[in-house]
Design goal:
The structure is a single chain. This protein is an alpha+beta fold and about 325 residues long. Helices cover about 50% and strands about 20% of the residues. Strands 5, 6, 7, 8, 9 and 10 form a 6-stranded mixed β-sheet that branches. Strands 1, 2, 3 and 4 form a 4-stranded antiparallel β-sheet that branches. A hairpin with a 2-residue loop joins strand 7 and strand 8. Helix 5 packs antiparallel against helix 6, helix 5 packs antiparallel against helix 8 and helix 10 packs parallel to helix 11. The protein is flat and about 80 Å long.
C-alpha cells in the first residue's frame, strides 16, 4: 500500500510540475492590458513572435504607427534646404537641423518605450511582450518634431520672401507646404492621441495657414509654355506628358504668352545588333524665365531599349521617358 501511495503522490507531483511548466499562468498585462496600462495614460501594443527580440520588434512596429509620417519627405526636404541660394554667393546651411531630423526619424520615437517581461507560451512556442509609452512622454516627441520642422518651414518662407525669382520662391514654398502637412498631422496626433490642447499650437497653425495661402497665391502667378525641339511625330507625346505634369502640380500652360518657357530636348542613338534594333535616349528639359535665364533643369540618360523593329524600339524608349517625366519632373 505504501508503495502504491508513493507512486500515486509521485504521479500527482509530476503532473502538477509539468502542468505548471507547460501551462504557465498568463500574465495580467496579456489578459487585460487595459487594466494595467489604461489608454488614457499609455500608448501600448502587444507583439508576438518566435523570439523575444522579434516580439519586441513587432510591438514597436505597431506603436510606431502612432508616430508614422513620411519621414523620407522630411529628410529630403531638410537636405534640399541646404542648397537653396540666399544670394549668388551664399547658401543656407541647416546641418544642425538635418542632424536633429535624422536623429528623430531613427531613434527619438522609441527612446521612451518600455517593455514588460516576455511571456513564453509552450503551446504555441511563441513569446509575447507588451510595449508601452506614457502619453506624457509621447507628447514630448510630437512637440520636439513640431518645433524642429517649424524652424525649417520658416527658413523656406524667409527664402521665398527674399527671392525675386518667382519660380524659386514657388519651389521653396512647395517644400514648406509638404512639411506643413506633416506638422499638421503631428498636431492632430498630439491633440487626439495624447489629449493636448490645440490652442497650444495657435502660432504654428497660423504659420501653416499662411504657407498654404502663399503657395496657392504664387502658383496663380506662374504660367508655362512648352516647346519641343524635335519635330518628329514620334516625340509629340512628350509635350502632352509635360503638360499633364504641370496640371497635376496645379500650374497652367499657355501656347502664347507665359512667365516661363519649358524646352524639351531629346536625342536618340540607334544601334543595331544581331539580337535586333535598340534605341538609347537622353533627355534635357529646361525652364527659362522671360529674360531667358534658366531656373530649372532636368536631365536624364536612359539605358538602351530594343525590340523586333526600330519603330517598336522607339515606342518602348518613349514610353520609358514619359514614365520618368511623370514620376520625376518638377519633383525636386
Amino acid at each position: 500500500m505504501k508503495s502504491l501511495a508513493k507512486t500515486y503522490f509521485f504521479l500527482i507531483f509530476c503532473f502538477l510540475f509539468i502542468s505548471s511548466f507547460l501551462f504557465a499562468e498568463v500574465p495580467l498585462w496579456l489578459k487585460q492590458p487595459e487594466k494595467l496600462y489604461p489608454s488614457n495614460q499609455y500608448i501600448k501594443a502587444i507583439g508576438e513572435a518566435t523570439s523575444v527580440k522579434s516580439a519586441q520588434s513587432a510591438a514597436l512596429e505597431t506603436i510606431s504607427l502612432y508616430f508614422d509620417t513620411k519621414t523620407e519627405i522630411v529628410t529630403v526636404a531638410v537636405e534640399q534646404i541646404k542648397s537653396l541660394k540666399t544670394n549668388q554667393n551664399e547658401k543656407l546651411s541647416r546641418n544642425q537641423s538635418l542632424e536633429k531630423i535624422t536623429n528623430i526619424t531613427s531613434n527619438a520615437e522609441f527612446f521612451c518605450v518600455n517593455f514588460t517581461e516576455p511571456f513564453y507560451d509552450k503551446k504555441t512556442d511563441k513569446y509575447s511582450v507588451l510595449a508601452y509609452i506614457e502619453k506624457a512622454e509621447a507628447a514630448k516627441i510630437y512637440t520636439n518634431r513640431i518645433q524642429i520642422l517649424m524652424e525649417i518651414v520658416q527658413s523656406y518662407r524667409n527664402f521665398a520672401n527674399n527671392e525675386t525669382e518667382i519660380f524659386l520662391s514657388s519651389e521653396a514654398l512647395k517644400k514648406a507646404n509638404a512639411l506643413c502637412s506633416i506638422i499638421s498631422q503631428y498636431i492632430t496626433n498630439e491633440t487626439i492621441i495624447v489629449g493636448a490642447d490645440k490652442t497650444k499650437f495657435k502660432k504654428e497653425l497660423e504659420t501653416i495657414a499662411a504657407v498654404y495661402s502663399d503657395f496657392a497665391s504664387i502658383k496663380k502667378q506662374m504660367t508655362f509654355s512648352i516647346k519641343l525641339n524635335q519635330e518628329e511625330k514620334k516625340f509629340d507625346s512628350l509635350f502632352s506628358t509635360v503638360a499633364s505634369v504641370l496640371e497635376k502640380e496645379g500650374y497652367s500652360y499657355s501656347l502664347v504668352d507665359s512667365e516661363y518657357k519649358i524646352i524639351i530636348d531629346i536625342s536618340c542613338i540607334e544601334e543595331n545588333y544581331e539580337t535586333g534594333p535598340f534605341v538609347r535616349a537622353s533627355l534635357d528639359v529646361f525652364i527659362l524665365n522671360r529674360e531667358g535665364k534658366g531656373v530649372y533643369t532636368y536631365s536624364k540618360a536612359y539605358p538602351r531599349f530594343g525590340s523586333t523593329t526600330m519603330e517598336k524600339a522607339y515606342t518602348r524608349t518613349i514610353t520609358k521617358v514619359k514614365q520618368d517625366l511623370e514620376e520625376n519632373f518638377l519633383v525636386n
